[in-house]
Amino acid sequence: MKRKPRRLSMSTRKSITGYLFISPFLIGFLLFLFSPVVTSLGMSLSDVTLKTDGTGFGLEFWGLKSYIHALTVDKDFNRLLVETVRDLLIDVPCIIIFSLIIAVLLNRSFPGRGVVRAIFFMPVILTSGVIVGMERSNTLLMGIQDMQSASVDTSITTTVQNLLLGALGSSGQEIISLVVKIINHFYDIVVASSIQIVIFLSGLQAINPSIYEAADMEGCDEWQKLWKITIPMLTPMILVNWIYTIIDQFARTENPLMEKIMTTISATMDYGYASAMAWIYCIAMLALIGISVLLISRMVYYYD
């Protein structure tokens, strides 16, 4: 008598599906990123010199000297690292809360909902590598950009600053600076929230409407449904968005610490020290992600 083949459990099938889903990233990482990562780690532990014959780099192993210098000698690096982590702990919750509020509003039916959704997702398109490449390769766009840069600055913050200067005068300079700083910070939060809004929208649309119908029959108001149904059901998306936002904020090129690393490479050609700073920065990011996952995962509710 033949034995029936053993069926895979539901959890095993879900695990296989998950690994198949991330397999393109794993293959791409092994093919294109693994070698640069190993090379960068080797540079961070070595004294890197350019070969005179132009054949590449010369590495002289000297251990953790660059790491020790970055953490104990370079005061600018320590200051920028602390400021970056501090700003991150402020910006990430603001981005998550803002994107969640906008996603809840956009999930409702109202005239022009598709246009509003496109407006909030537009920053992702405008800041993508494709658009940047088109701008750099298009002489007409470059000419327009040069004309705009040569003309009078008419940005929103400049307009607000001029209006406040006219109303308050030079005596209100501190208030004006604070208002302009708040406007710039709010703009950065809006620009950084596009992907998170889309992820939250997908989570909201996956919630079974019958749950809200049952809550209506029990007499729950909108506030109670938000905290008793919507937020718990979105906790997996909150965790995903939290991790994504940390990585996105850490990797921004306009980050002062990233600028210092790039300046070290371009100005002094010190690839070893720049690699050490980058690895410290990466380790700090991984530590922050690990702590966040450890704390937030305890509150995540998975609904099957």
Describe the protein's topology.
Layout: H1 10-44, E1 46-50, E2 57-61, H2 65-72, H3 75-106, H4 113-126, H5 129-137, H6 139-150, H7 156-168, H8 173-191, H9 194-205, H10 209-217, H11 222-250, H12 256-268, H13 271-296
Antiparallel strand pairs: 1-2
Could you explain the architecture of this structure?
The protein is mainly alpha-helical and 304 residues long. The protein has 13 helices and 2 strands; from the N terminus they run αββαααααααααααα. It has a two-stranded antiparallel sheet. A hairpin with a 6-residue loop joins β1 and β2. About 7% of the residues have low confidence.
Question: Would you summarize the structure shown here?
Answer:
The chain has 304 residues and is mainly alpha-helical. It has helices at 10-44, 65-72, 75-106, 113-126, 129-137, 139-150, 156-168, 173-191, 194-205, 209-217, 222-250, 256-268, 271-296; strands at 46-50, 57-61. Helix 3 (75-106) runs antiparallel to helix 11 and helix 7 (156-168) packs antiparallel against helix 8 (173-191).
Structure characteristics:
304 residues; mainly alpha; 3% strand
Distance between the termini: 37 Å
For the largest beta-sheet, the strand count, sense and barrel status come to: 2 strands, antiparallel
* Fraction of residues in β-strands: under 5%
Low-confidence stretches: 129-141, 147-154
What shape does the CA trace take?
globular
